[in-house]
Amino acid sequence: MKSKGIFITATDTGVGKTEVAAALAAFIKNSRKFENVQLWKPVQSGVTMGDPEADSYRLLHGSGLDQKEEDIATYTFYQPLAPWIAAEREGKKIDYMKLVSEGHKRRMNSDFLIVEGAGGLIVPITQDKTIANLVTELSLPILIVGRAGLGTVNHTCLTISYARKLGLEVKGVVLNGYEDEADPSIEENITMIENFTDVPVIGKLPWLNVNNEEGINWELRRKKWIKTIHEHLDLKSIFE
Ligand SMILES: Nc1ncnc2c1ncn2[C@@H]1O[C@H](COP(=O)(O)OP(=O)(O)OP(=O)(O)O)[C@@H](O)[C@H]1O
Ligand SMILES: C[C@H](N)[C@@H](CCCCCC(=O)O)NC(=O)O
Ligand SMILES: [Mg+2]
């Protein structure tokens, strides 16, 4: 039987998918809701494997899951470009169908699979396939990470509109990274997004001061994220 799971996409690159994916995995592991939680980043670019900046590294340590970093990311390309072009520039091609069958296999071999895209939905994996196409093939519902502040209404509504055009199931939106608890614009953004899309904003996440100069204390970081997820996100719909 296929596992439950979620595909984490965003309104842009650098919005917080890796933070949210790792934190969600840590939260689920901690809650023991599902026995075998797994993370997958089909393609990462702009990094090398083992680089502390790499999504594969941050997903591994941010979640505390019992996976190998090499198992978390299938393709890794050095140039900070969309996967299709990052691969081309290394003289390589991404085997899209390999990703599709790997995704199905990963769903069979886990109880809850969290997949992180690269950038947003219309980011090319090959000349004719995008992240959105991969989501469709895997039949996973999506969670959209958007920025918390000004500009997010347009980006989030456009992403939802495209997802719906493709028939994707949109479970919710997370608005990430607000700095001022009292900033009224965040609540107004939630009202506007829900009004125009009928997709629930399942929560907003503060900017956490979790990186320091002496290096990251991953255990402490995970604890902080688990508490933050518990306090700020309503995850019911994600687990249904
Ligand atoms: N709520 C937060 N608190 C503190 N730091 C955050 C938060 N959200 C994101 N960041 C930081 O912002 C940067 C960008 O976030 P992240 O790497 O998660 O984005 P992304 O959507 O995964 O990008 P990509 O498209 O490259 O995968 C990272 O340095 C991350 O640690
Ligand atoms: C290099 C980035 N960090 C990201 C790829 C982002 C591509 C964005 C393309 C675009 O929308 O213009 N790679 C990744 O998530 O692994
Ligand atoms: Mg990322």
Automatic annotation (TrEMBL):
The keyword Repeat does not apply. SUPFAM superfamilies: P-loop containing nucleoside triphosphate hydrolases. Pathway: Cofactor biosynthesis; biotin biosynthesis; biotin from 7,8-diaminononanoate: step 1/2. One of its GO terms (cellular component) is cytosol. It catalyses: (7R,8S)-8-amino-7-(carboxyamino)nonanoate + ATP = (4R,5S)-dethiobiotin + ADP + phosphate + H(+); (7R,8S)-7,8-diammoniononanoate + CO2 + ATP = (4R,5S)-dethiobiotin + ADP + phosphate + 3 H(+). Substrate binds at residue 45. It is an enzyme of class 6 (ligase). One of its GO terms (molecular function) is ATP binding. Its cofactor is Mg(2+). CDD domains: DTBS (cd03109). It is found in: Cytoplasm. The active site is at residue 41. Mg(2+) binds at residues 18, 55, 116. Belongs to the dethiobiotin synthetase family. HAMAP family: BioD. Homodimer. Catalyzes a mechanistically unusual reaction, the ATP-dependent insertion of CO2 between the N7 and N8 nitrogen atoms of 7,8-diaminopelargonic acid (DAPA, also called 7,8-diammoniononanoate) to form a ureido ring. NCBIfam families: bioD. This is ATP-dependent dethiobiotin synthetase BioD. It comes from Chengkuizengella marina. The gene is bioD.
